[in-house]
Design goal:
Two copies of one chain form a homodimer.
Chain A (H helix, E strand, L loop, with lengths): L6 H5 L6 H12 L16 H19 L6 H12 L4 E2 H8 L3 H13 L3 E5 L7 E5 L1 H22 L4 H13 L2
Antiparallel strand pairs in A: 1-3, 2-3
The first copy, chain A, binds a DNA duplex through helix 3, helix 4, helix 5 and helix 6.
Chain lengths: 174, 174
DNA sequence: GAAATATTGTTTGTATGCAAATGATTTTGC
DNA sequence: GCAAAATCATTTGCATACAAACAATATTTC
């Protein structure tokens, strides 16, 4: 099942803004007012919408991903295969937009499934260099169709031209 | 400090796609190929971008929010004040796009700060009806300027017209 | 070359977020 | 009216995610 809390239909449900009438009244009466309760509609705020959109994407991802990978796990594995030169754990995490603490957990789970492996760096004794395994490559190959479908499904409500437009704008917000 | 992992500058860093050349070679040679490794650029995928954009928003939120509220906590408190009729914990959570388990924690933290209070529902003995307290209303009033600035800051890279465009598209992805 | 600084990886604590299971209660279907 | 289904709230387990602190090692600065 997708989820127990469909945000879409419910969001527009309780849009009543009881404070607004009060605000108008104050304004009409010439009473000093902060004006801060007006013109703030939660359903129109970027952060609120980004959270819901990302949640929907994750739901689609977990539905359609057959390889048992989460979005960060897939991104990490994919980035590791892309890497031309040996890469450390922290550096890989940064390429995926994760901090060191988060990366630690993601890498541990990929390691436990033997999708990646570690080697001690000879030059820098702090570093563990990461490598993707054959099993990791095979899993990636196997799920590429899934992840393409997931991107498709996430953008499905938009027309092709709108998708490109949306992605272009979204990139600039990062 | 904003965060220890600036995704922006780093993302475009390791774009090398070693597999592509191999794919091209196979194609040229007429070897059957799955074509699944081609044309997938992680930095162009909605889910990847949504995650990073939401992370950036959260960083801005925690920087500029003076009231010690997280995004879900603010949304929950704001929605509770909006509510015209008495509302149960689960119902409030759904209005904010949170499942019951998540809502439990958020509500607990708002309760511990006395920003909301509970009453046992007389009619339905399973329900706890939630109410915002005076302290909760005061805090909301106090942070409205913050959250408006946060929305502004999140959309700052876009021109005014682009912001409206982006929000319209984003809404359709929920 | 020694001191200051930075980086790598780890750990702990806190906060979402979902799945799945549970018990209590209410509503629905017949 | 009664069994089945749904709902409310809770709990447990797992997976991001960030802040802050830490030890070990490298690099920079002078």
């Amino acid at each position: 099942m997708v989820g127990s809390c469909p945000p879409v239909a419910i969001i527009a449900l309780t849009r009543g803004k009881p404070m607004l009438q009060f605000g108008m009244m104050l304004k009409t009466l010439g009473v000093p007012m902060t004006d801060q309760n007006e013109s703030y509609i939660l359903d129109d705020q970027v952060g609120f919408l980004l959270r819901l959109a990302y949640q929907r994407h994750i739901a689609l991802f977990m539905e359609q991903m057959t390889g048992g990978l989460t979005p960060p796990q897939f991104s990490t594995l994919y980035r590791l295969r892309e890497a031309v030169e040996p890469i450390s754990q922290n550096a890989l995490g940064r390429l995926v937009g994760m901090d060191a603490a988060t990366t630690k957990g993601v890498v541990a789970r990929l390691l436990s499934r033997d999708l990646i492996r570690v080697e001690k760096d000879g030059g820098d004794r702090r570093r563990y260099t990461l490598f993707i395994t054959d099993a990791g490559r095979q899993l990636l190959d196997a799920v590429m169709a899934d992840v393409k479908g997931i991107s498709e499904a996430t953008l499905e409500p938009l027309a092709p031209q709108e998708r490109a437009q949306f992605l272009a704008l979204l990139k600039r917000l990062i």
